[in-house]
Structure formats: structure tokens, C-alpha cells
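sry for the spam today, last one i promise. C-alpha cells for design, 157 residues
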């Protein structure tokens, strides 16, 4: 099954290699495609709604029709690793064309992206830098693959 990650902005700094490593690992289990779109914040005092709307347009243009969309947001549902693995497995078994995980920019996700999303998923109730959220998502996609194949990586109950 295809797994698409659409993220606002690039991963820079110390986390870049870790994100790359887990995205490479996750690609062993999923047809993984990662697309980065330009962040909309420009200038000293950008208007958050304008920024989110501009980013939303860029995000939605990268998601193929028919793909399930999961918006990553603090207000979303919490899933443990096994539940995420089962959710991905169910989509694969039901011949879903794929799932797109969407990570927003500094101001979050625009309303059009939230409305297009079938699921709102919380990685954490805390606000995370986008690089950290992307790392956690990549690691969880890798972990979900190992869980579904019965591999020993996942030690959780």
C-alpha cells in the first residue's frame, strides 16, 4: 500500500539524519513517498490564516484523488503503535489506494485540509516542532511495519 507523507517545510539540523534513517526503514514496509511543500510564513508578522490557507492549497495539490487523508494535529485521536499498525493493515486489506499523512507548518493545518481528512491523529498532546513530529511519524510507520510482520523491533505490550 502507498503511504504518502506531505510535510510543510524541510527537516534541517540535527534531526535530519534521524528522519532520513526512519523514512528509509519505513520504506521497507510501505511504498513510501515523502513530499515537502514550502512553508507559507514570510515576513515579520505573517497572518496565520493566510499562511495556513496557502499551505493547505500546496498540501492538497500533492494528494492524489481517492487517497485517505490523516491530518496530524494535537486535537486528534491518540492511537498506540499497534492500533496504528492495525489501521494501516485494514486500509491495505480493503485495497485502499493509500493513505496520506499530513503535517502542517508553524500555525497548524488549514481548514480545507482538516475537512478533507478522514482522520485527525495526535502524535502528542504537546506541541512539537515539525522536525520532531516528522521523526515520530517516520518511526511509527517503521514500527507499524515491524508489528505487522511480527518482527522483534516492537517491545511494547
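last one done:
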Amino acid at each position: 500500500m502507498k503511504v504518502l507523507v506531505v510535510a510543510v517545510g524541510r527537516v534541517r539540523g540535527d534531526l535530519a539524519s534521524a528522519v532520513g534513517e526512519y523514512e528509509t526503514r519505513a520504506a521497507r514496509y510501505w511504498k513510501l513517498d515523502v513530499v515537502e511543500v514550502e512553508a507559507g510564513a514570510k515576513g515579520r508578522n505573517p497572518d496565520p490564516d493566510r499562511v495556513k490557507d496557502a499551505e493547505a492549497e500546496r498540501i492538497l495539490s500533492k494528494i492524489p484523488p481517492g487517497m485517505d487523508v490523516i491530518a496530524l494535529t494535537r486535537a486528534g485521536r491518540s492511537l498506540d503503535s499497534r492500533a496504528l499498525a492495525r489501521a494501516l493493515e485494514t486500509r491495505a486489506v480493503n485495497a485502499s489506494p493509500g493513505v496520506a499523512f499530513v503535517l502542517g507548518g508553524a500555525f497548524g493545518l488549514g481548514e480545507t485540509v482538516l475537512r478533507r481528512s478522514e482522520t485527525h491523529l495526535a502524535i502528542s498532546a504537546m506541541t512539537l516542532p515539525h522536525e520532531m513530529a516528522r521523526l515520530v511519524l517516520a518511526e511509527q510507520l517503521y514500527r507499524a511495519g515491524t508489528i505487522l510482520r511480527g518482527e522483534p523491533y516492537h517491545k511494547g505490550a
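The longest strand covers residues 68-78. ok im logging off now
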